[in-house]
User: Fold this.
Amino acid sequence: DVKVTQSSRYLVKRTGEKVFLECVQDMDHENMFWYRQDPGLGLRLIYFSYDVKMKEKGDIPEGYSVSREKKERFSLILESASTNQTSMYLCASSLSQIQETQYFGPGTRLLVL
Amino acid sequence: KNEVEQSPQNLTAQEGEFITINCSYSVGISALHWLQQHPGGGIVSLFMLSSGKKKHGRLIATINIQEKHSSLHITASHPRDSAVYICAVPNYGGSQGNLIFGKGTKLSVKP
Assistant:
């Protein structure tokens, strides 16, 4: 079974802090994704990566950056956390192509005070 | 960019009832995904289908490519089916290589 893990289930940070969210997958998947999920808005793509050191902006990249130094690990960085970044953050991975099934991590619920 | 609409937004059913959740999209696709999200957040993929029908246990997914419509059915519903069900389609014209998600249908099955 594919396993996607995220570094924290719950996180509380202060406005202005730098926040790192880590995601690791164990199935040698090419693609990795970071989403945020807010009530009434559904899942929205922040960034994705289709290869090591490659990244593409999603629909809402502002205020975020990412890093993929190793194939199995994809990090989401909030350079200076703000209260409007309070959300559920979900990481996912897929084998390769657009039609491929995505496998999700358990999510990190981030609260920015 | 593909637009995805799900209905209903919320659904309450009694245990044993037959459930139908609908998904419509605006741009022709080659595959559609159904996902399930339980309270607590974890999302699992239920189906990926490109035509006809797929069945897994009490869950059945159908798709009509010409009408740009898919349905997810649950037979003999059970309280453990309570979850948010999400459909997703390829995001042609949007961020390359990705899915666009419906807002989800929250299902609550009462014993």
